[in-house]
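Closing statement on the fructose -6-phosphate sub-project.
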Amino acid sequence: MCGIVGYIGNNEKKSLLLSGLKELEYRGYDSAGISVLENGELHTFKAVGKLINLERKCEGFHSSGFGLGIGHTRWATHGKPTEINAHPHIGHYSNIVHNGIIENYQSIKESLQKQGCVFSSQTDTEVIVHLFESYVTQGNDPFSAFKKTISDLKGAYAILLITQKSPDTIFYAKNGSPLIIARNTKTKEVFFASSDAPLIGLASEVCYLEDGEVGKMDLESFARLKNIKPLSGDKLSAQKDGFTFFMEKEIYEQHKVLLETMMGRVSEEGFCLDELESLNLDSINSLTLCACGTSYHASLAGSYLIERIAKLKTKVEIASEFRYKEPILHKNELFVVISQSGETADTLEALKLAKQKGLTALAICNVDNSSIVRESDYSLLTRAGIEKGVASTKAFATQVMVLWILANFLAQKRGILDKAMLKNEANTMLEASKATQVDKKLHEHIKRLSRRYLHGHGFFFIGRDIFYPLALEGALKLKEISYLHAEGYPSGEMKHGPIALADLGLFCVTLMPQNLLYDKVKSNVEELSARDAMICALSAEYYEGCDDWIAIPSAKHYMVEFFSMMVVLQVFALEVAVRLGNDVDMPRNLAKSVTVE
Ligand code: F6R
């Protein structure tokens, strides 16, 4: 989704802004732009499409000496992805970049138009720069004009504004969309960004702004910010390491990151979650898990584990639905939000609602210091490392693992599991993480098989129990990057309607674990096979009714089979999408972090 960068200092500003935007590229965008203010002059460049187009646009431009810069990648919401609609938006002497949505932009626009203001774009953002300049025209100094502007806005925003009226200052405001200010303590340069990624390797200190903050920043003001923290991070962790796609690299590193997720938390002696030490479990009699997309699928998987292992009632909510359904909440339910980015607007708002109602909130998140982590009472980090592929893989794996650990931790605290059971669970987790190590031969087999799945009228992914959320996730992965129609279903549900679609053009990917309801799934698959649907079976044991068989290693526990099948589904989606010639890491219309409702 939209990304913001900003810079104050003496370095070459164009290249700093462009490389900052490159770091945000994976989040998804359809146009981009930068503005540099130096020696009192504003230089603005915008382009539709990939950053390379913007780089070409500003090829001949270089900036030396002190100056300011702002940059933006836009994911269209109001108005098409055109150059005019790309940010920065331009006034007579000021430029602005903005993430989020200004809900009352129409009324502001109409009143500015009455004053003679002419708009060139269809965006909500453009009103901000004109409103600012109208307040300056009325005699306000630039900072007062900026503050008045911000107080007129309704909605979510992270905003940077630069103006010739104040050539050493970047004005900023944050409400609902993330914004970070950072500094390199040696060079004194100041950076802005909408997420950590562009700052790693450049800045040593950061300040994660809170909602409602409005300010001005020059080279001297950083030290006055509250809550400055050191920034650590390793740029290398976000490189492709010889893989063609980030998604592929991220699938291959799952076995490593799962061990990280378990480190210090899982041992044969039991389960340890230091982060929850102060949580009073006696006051909790149920859990509500709330998330979107892949994180929602992980939550569904988690609900099976928590109910089965910890014997605690667990319901799962789609965050975008939760807010408006007037949910009935009880103080003794633990509200758990699951999010890779920690910035998903729907999940964040659901969390705020639960907090307002007095619930205790736990975040299961991949990004420390993200809005969701900061807003929650407790947090468990998933430790997946930076995930760049828009289609989530290792984040899902680590979310399921954390939920599984949480289930055991709760069961242990409630005295449900004895020592032998805890030991068995810990060893199964280790085995499950090993099962995600990609077998090159299996990958090759899936790659060859993928060419048989490029046509047809759609896919059903089916499974039972915890393999149902895995089926949902398999279908989501495929549709996200291949653009083929795919649905996930509980296999027992097929005969209640969906089986009407079964014919030669229907592909059914069937999840058939040996250790969980094998015979039940088998009879559901037979019903489909009898109606000529093409069956691709994922199982350890050969199933004679299948057209294609993807063999997973035989295991003693269904969770080991779960993680083996998860990898197969991810590789399957990847290989089908590659054959179709799609950009796997940046699929059309999708954004990595969905910061608008
Ligand atoms: C799918 C995917 C999305 C996200 C969803 C929630 O591959 O990545 O469905 O899972 O947008 O995002 P987070 O987990 O960042 O809250």
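Residues 292-295, 339-341, 344, 347, 391-392, 476, 480, 593-594 surround fructose -6-phosphate (CB under 6 Å). With this model delivered, the sub-project is considered complete and its resources will be redirected to Aim 3.
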